[in-house]
């Protein structure tokens, strides 16, 4: 039974860590041409019409400053073999883009090479909530390719071996993909 007691920051972290999340890199290029980016798992699809997504960034991080300056950002949804990028973009700020393939778009949005999906977004709305800023982005362009997603769960990375079909309504854009079978997840 869940007890109704005031939640500590540590307990909240431990509780929300039980939600498996996809891993993205959110990035933008300053007007001076310097790319800034960070690992973000707080990513959410919002709407098809208009095409909207939502991300949440910690207040005070350089990436947030550049996104607010440019009013644009890119989202790269990482493949399972891109764990090193997740770790790099979650670590020290300097050197994140060193030897990393990326594309800086005219809008200021930056996307990383090799991701299973990349979105170019313009900032539609920002909402300050607690110690984070929630950003709503309008998707201007989307690219995608086959691959297994990098997932994060309880401080560990993983992915799916295979997938099973949902027994509920499917997304309108779903297409038959080769090799979809039983669902088995692994964590390392």
How would you summarize this macromolecular structure in one to three sentences?
This protein has 188 residues and is mainly β.
Provide an overview of this structure.
The protein has 188 residues and is mainly β. The strands form three sheets. A seven-stranded antiparallel beta sheet has the order 3-2-6-9-10-5-4. The model is unreliable at 176-188 (pLDDT under 50). It has a single domain, classed as Pnp Oxidase, Chain A, CATH 2.30.110. The chain has three helices and 13 strands; from the N terminus they run αβββββαβαβββββββ. It is globular.
* Count of DSSP strands: 13
CATH class: Mainly Beta
**Straight-line distance between termini:** 30 Å
Helix fraction by DSSP (H/I, runs of at least 4)? 10-25%
Assign the CATH architecture: Roll
CATH topology, what is it called?
Pnp Oxidase, Chain A
Secondary-structure element series: HEEEEEHEHEEEEEEE
* Backbone shape: globular
* Class inferred from helices and paired strands: mainly beta
Stretches where pLDDT is under 50 for at least 5 consecutive residues are: 176-188
Radius of gyration: 17 Å
> Major sheet: order of its strands?
3-2-6-9-10-5-4
Number of domains: 1
**CATH fourth-tier homologous superfamily:** Electron Transport, Fmn-binding Protein, Chain A
Strand content range: 35-45%
Biggest beta-sheet profile: 7 strands, antiparallel
Q: How many alpha or pi helices?
A: 3
